[in-house]
Design goal:
This protein has 113 residues and is an alpha+beta fold. The protein contains three helices and five strands; from the N terminus they run βααββββα.
Length: 113
C-alpha cells in the first residue's frame, strides 16, 4: 500500500529554510520516505516513538543529510496506521535546539482528533 505524505505548515516553512542552507535536503527527504515506506515506525535506534494512541503514532527520527555529512537533523512525524498516512510535523537541527517542540505535537494531536 502506498503511503501518503503531508506536511504541516510549520514543517514546510522549516524545510524551505533548511533546503536553502543544505542543498541535498529535498533528495535526502525522498530517501527518508523510502525508508519510512518500508518501516513506518523505523528500523533502528535512529527512530524513537514519542507518543502513541489508537489513531496514530508520533515518531522522531534522524534525517541523514549528505550536505551536513551526519545525522544532526531530526524529523517528527505522525504515522496513521489505518489509512497509511504520514504527516510531517517538525524538522529541526540538533545544534539549534535540543528537543522536539512538544507544544506543536500536542496541538497537532488536539487539532487532528
Amino acid at each position: 500500500m502506498k503511503t501518503n505524505y503531508n506536511e504541516q505548515p510549520e514543517f514546510s516553512k522549516e524545510f524551505k529554510r533548511f533546503s536553502k542552507k543544505y542543498k541535498s535536503l529535498p533528495d535526502d527527504l525522498e530517501e527518508f520516505k523510502h525508508v519510512v515506506d518500508i518501516a513506518p515506525l523505523g528500523n533502528s535506534k535512529h527512530f524513537n516513538v514519542i507518543t502513541r494512541n489508537e489513531q496514530c503514532v508520533i515518531v522522531k527520527a534522524r534525517l541523514f543529510c549528505r550536505y551536513l555529512k551526519g545525522s544532526s537533523l531530526r524529523v517528527v512525524y505522525a504515522f496513521h496506521c489505518q489509512n497509511c498516512k504520514i504527516d510531517f510535523i517538525e524538522i529541526y537541527f540538533k545544534g539549534e535546539k535540543e528537543n522536539e517542540d512538544r507544544e506543536r505535537i500536542k496541538d497537532y494531536l488536539k487539532n487532528y482528533f
